[in-house]
Amino acid sequence: MPRLVMKFGGTSVADMDRIRNVARHVKREVDAGYDVAVVVSAMAGVTNQLVAWSKEAAPLHDAREYDAVVATGEQVTAGLLAMVLEGMGVNARSWQGWQLPILTDNAHSSARILDVNGAELIKRFDEHKQVAVIAGFQGLHKGTGRVTTLGRGGSDTSAVAIAAAIKAERCDIYTDVDGVYTTDPRVEPKARRLDKIAFEEMLELASLGAKVMQVRSVELGMVQNVRIFVRSSFVKPEDINPRSNSAGTLICDEADIVEQQVVTGIAFSKDEAQISIRRVPDRPGVAAAIFGPLADANINVDMIVQNTSADGATTDLTFTVPSSDYERARITIERAKAAINYERLDGATDVAKVSVIGIGMRSHAGVAAQAFKALSQQKINIRAITTSEIKFSVLIDAAHTDEAVRTLHSLYGLDKN
Ligand code: ADP
Ligand code: ASP
Ligand code: MG
Questions:
Q1: Over the stretch 192-219, which tens digit does the pLDDT of each residue have?
Q2: The pTM is what?
């Protein structure tokens, strides 16, 4: 029998009605002849609540205990869905990460999957036609025997890893939108669904802020060659014919996309903070004096801009860090003040990064220049820029994020077919 992984996110399992709806989607595929492994998220809002409680319990809590708390959300959904499926006459059993097991490294709260054992699932498919309902987001560190979690949005990664382990024909990611759009449809209602997107582009979209897929799930899909199809759980299960094409987005190899556009999508992230170090002596070793301590503190620096200070004799260095690392980055730089020898440190957290992504940029010049012009016409000031082969990003005031996204979306014709 062909095997299928079906993953349902938090909004898709938000209450009992929606869990029943999910069960009908699962039954449809079972009836169509698939051996199905379902991966579920916690019910909408549950993980946020668990995270908030952990912070309340102790702001600097032990990550092992954080995992013990936040992993519970998925366990509830898995059990409930298995019960509902059984009630519908579908043989089903729930599984937690440690039971399969899904083995991870020891990086509590953002663990990486090392190995998934799909043997027992396959045995039960073959012997009992039993559907596996697996709690997403969680794993087990073998050495310590402790539960780990995979980082926010990690159920996507659980699903892709399981699809690879059981050699599933496809990994369907059911969510609250019917695919991957040219940008977040909540910000630009004119955004269009993409029928296909290349792994590389999806990887950039996800890592630059589009939360529709967790970055690691796309990485894993690319490496393990998993066919990932993003689709909506809100389409009525009865309206879908499993044998014909449904609405959604296939994440696939670049070679499988016939008509490649120059720009495929726009992503944005408000999870950015800017630090500017003013009036640094312009001498060899300055960048090392600044970025060395940041690297030692495990702080990821993203955009970097260097320009001459107002006095003409020294230099200003601006860079961005994730907003969660902002305070740590400031303190790290202040501690290194003597070695860097700067005059002043300015910081801002009300900034956003807007990024334009497209494989076609490899062979087209001037794509970014068009954006700079369009943004200047909207009087949106660019604080920093980075570019790479298939994307560029601009740092702007957070207040202009939506406007910038819409401006660029229309500039590259993404609202038109
Ligand atoms: P789930 O709970 O199913 O995992 P998420 O909330 O993690 O769902 O991801 C789905 C959301 O991602 C959508 O509701 C949408 O607002 C957002 N999103 C951001 N960028 C995009 C995009 N380019 N295409 C589709 N959805 C996007
Ligand atoms: N429940 C987890 C979260 O909210 C994992 C997931 O939904 O993918 O981040
Ligand atoms: Mg998600």
A1: 999 999 999 999 999 999 999 999 999 9
A2: 0.94
Tokens of 344: 């002043």
Atom of ligand 1 nearest to the CA of 230: 25
Residue 136 Cα to ligand 2 midpoint, Å, equals 8
pLDDT tens per residue, range 276-287: 999 999 889 989
Q: Is the confidence at residue 243, as pLDDT, over 80?
A: no
Confidence of residue 308 (pLDDT cuts 50, 70, 90): confident
Q: Is 155 in the pocket of ligand 2 (CB under 6 A)?
A: yes
* CATH number for the domain formed by residue range(s) 266-411: 3.30.2130.10
Ligand 1 atom closest to residue 176's alpha carbon, by position in its atom list: 14
Ligand nearest to the CA of 74: 2
Q: Flag whether pLDDT at 188 surpasses 90.
A: yes
Contacts of 400 (CB under 8 A, 6+ apart): 352, 378, 380
Nearest atom in ligand 1 to the alpha carbon of residue 265 is: 23
R_g of the chain, CA atoms, integer Å:
23
Instruction: Give domain limits for the chain.
Output: 3-255, 266-411
The amino acid at 275: I
Residue 119 alpha carbon to ligand 1 centre in Å: 32
| Confidence (pLDDT) at 241 | 84
Q: What percent of the chain has pLDDT over 70?
A: 100
Pairing state of beta strands 304-308 and 314-322? antiparallel
Alpha carbon of 105 to those of 39, 108, 148, 299: distances in Å?
20, 8, 8, 20
Quick check: CB of 211 below 6 Å from ligand 2? no
What's domain 3-255's architecture?
3-Layer(aba) Sandwich (3.40)
Give me the DSSP letters along 121-134. Answer: HHHHHHHH-PEEEE
